[in-house]
Amino acid sequence: MLNVAFIAHDRKKEDIVNFAVAYEHVFKDKNLFSTGTTGQRIMEATDLKIHRFLSGPLGGDQQIGALIAQNEMDLVIFLRDPLMAQPHEPDITALLRLCDVHGIPVATNMATAEILVRALDRGDFAWRELVELLKPELK
């Protein structure tokens, strides 16, 4: 089963909740993770079950980053607010860097999230399973 993480800055929380509502049918059979408040808001608006970590500024971004570093995350939807300075910006940068290092698709805006979720719905994320199967041969 695929693992998907939801993260949203304060002014993007309503957007991510609406997104989760719209694509609940896609997310219902995935393992879902989130930072604290974002996950709570999504669960209040949907029937989705989400493993919630701490809020982002308290370390939730880093907890999700740890899953990425352990190759236990398949997709990150992180709706960022580019117009608001974040006190935990180094954690955000580290999370995005880990996605790049480990080849994890990450959406930082609604347009990219829409494209990635439609790909998820089509089954386009199967490439990660193939890479895992071939890893012994790639060494």
From TrEMBL:
Active-site residues, as the UniProt record annotates them: 61
Keyword Lyase tagged: yes
Keyword Lyase: yes
Pfam families assigned to the protein according to its UniProt record, in alphabetical order: MGS
Residues that bind substrate: 9, 13, 35-38, 55-56, 88
Keywords: Lyase
Enzyme class: lyase
InterPro entries per UniProt: Methylgl_synth, Methylglyoxal_synth_AS, MGS-like_dom, MGS-like_dom_sf
Entry's EC annotation: 4.2.3.3
Limits of the MGS-like domain: 1-139
Domain of life where this protein originates: Bacteria
Record's catalysed reaction(s): dihydroxyacetone phosphate = methylglyoxal + phosphate
Entry similarity comment: Belongs to the methylglyoxal synthase family.
Function: Catalyzes the formation of methylglyoxal from dihydroxyacetone phosphate.
Record's protein name: Methylglyoxal synthase
Organism whose genome encodes this protein: Paenibacillus aceti
Gene from which this protein is expressed: mgsA
